[in-house]
Amino acid sequence: NSVFANVVRAPEDPILGVTVAYNKDPSPIKLNLGVGAYRTEEGKPLVLNVVRRAEQLLVNDRSRVKEYLPIVGLADFNKLSAKLILGSDSPAIQGNRVTTVQCLSGTGSLRVGAEFLSRHYYQRTIYIPNPTWGNHTKIFTLAGLTVKTYRYYDPVTRGLNIQGLLEDLSSAPSGAIVLLHACAHNPTGVDPTLEQWEQIRQLIRSKSLLPFFDSAYQGFASGSLDKDAQSVRMFVGDGGECFIAQSYAKNMGLYGERVGALSIVCRSADVASRVESQLKLVIRPMYSSPPIHGASIVATILKDRKLYDEWTLELKAMADRIITMRKQLFDALSARGTPGDWSHIIKQIGMFTFTGLNTKQVTFMTKEFHIYMTSDGRISMAGLSSRTVPHLADAIHAAVT
Ligand code: PMP
Q: Anything else the record notes (predicted)?
């Protein structure tokens, strides 16, 4: 008998489980809108041309070796990543007040930041939006933080509950950590306006709360890298401290390469260098040092003007295709006279639309139309194409009528 005979089967991950169910469905019309990964009009995964070119350059460079990276990762990559999110003229970078460490994509960056906070920060409570990306609760809880939520989404308006958000953060204990989606909030697609960001910033600073940005979609939301970084830059511009977890999964299509960065903006260069020394103690016993390939691709692209420009064009094309899918779906529902207000489909931003469909309607659409999505009614716009929009619109129409 196995010594593990008592191990109980764990449930499938709610997001990745959607794909498992999709793969089992033999129907030729099946459609997977569960995964948060970009697909082309033909429904295929996309490797950016600029990534292929950078990889070619790396392969052809015989001086490149496969030695270990330092604990904090590739130095060039770290510097360029901080510049990308904070802006090349950032006073925080110029003042050496930012420490950046290469981590295992967005998830790893969040986890390393959380582990550091749980060891070195006096306040153990982190506020995350309700709802949020499902992994947030688990990441922060396992790092030893206490997770609480703040109101974010208003199901009635299918927009931001700014009043509830401000009230909940007002009653948070001084010093509490606040997780903020830098742009393209997942799963709702609802972001604060710049005015609302300013209100949030003032409240966070006046209560000495600590902002922790999750930036998983820079450039992917609006098509502009600078625009999608505005929220973060507002908080760094006031001279205060903050954490930023960056992912290159979406905006460079490097999902499986696991490339990301954690930046901690500090009050002084001295603090930043001491913080970095402690980050190394977090990372070393966890995975020793990060992988070299993905970070080399990113650094190659970010440091070369031509490759960088080429990247921004390809990134914009991905963002634009998603925006086009929003318009097409909205138009298709209007054409069918589907009851209800569907304008949130074009108002929401980023990879996902929070449709407002309930679990029962989702189950119906999966059963009758072979359309797969998370049970909260979130659909990945990147998984749609002009060809599949009518099928989805038929399904939504049938589900609500
Ligand atoms: N944060 C959010 C909000 C996300 O949507 C994702 C990706 N689904 C991540 C972080 C992290 O993704 P990754 O670890 O693949 O970079």
A: In eukaryotes there are cytoplasmic, mitochondrial and chloroplastic isozymes.
As a whole number of Å, the CA-based R_g of the chain is 21
Q: Residue 292 corresponds to which tokens in the numbers above?
A: 């070299």
pLDDT for 145-189, tens place per residue? 999 999 999 999 999 999 999 999 999 999 999 999 999 999 999
Q: Using the Cα atoms of residue 298, residue 302, residue 307 and residue 312 in order, give the sign of their dihedral.
A: positive
Q: How far is the CA of 216 from the centre of ligand 1 (A)?
A: 5
The one-letter amino acid code at 247 reads S
Distance (Å, rounded) from C-alpha 267 to C-alpha 92?
Answer: 9
How far apart are alpha carbons 255 and 39 in whole angstroms? 12
Where do we find the tokens 């052809």? 60
ipTM of the complex as predicted: 0.98
Spatial CB neighbours of 111, under 8 Å, sequence gap ≥ 6: 103, 139, 142, 143
> Rounded CA gap, 133 and 224, in Å?
23
Contacts of 46 (CB under 8 A, 6+ apart): 38, 39, 40, 253, 318
Atom of ligand 1 minimally distant from the CA of 186: 3
- What separation in Å is there between the alpha carbon of 13 and the centre of ligand 1? 14
Is pTM beyond 0.80 here? yes
pLDDT digits (tens, 9 = 90+) for 331-388: 999 999 999 999 999 999 999 999 999 999 999 999 999 999 999 999 999 999 999 9
Q: How far is the CA of 371 from the centre of ligand 1 (A)?
A: 23
The finding on whether 165 has its CB within 6 A of some atom of ligand 1 is no
Q: What is the pLDDT of residues 33-53, one digit of tens each?
A: 998 899 999 989 999 999 999
- In angstroms, the CA 102 to CA 71 distance is 9
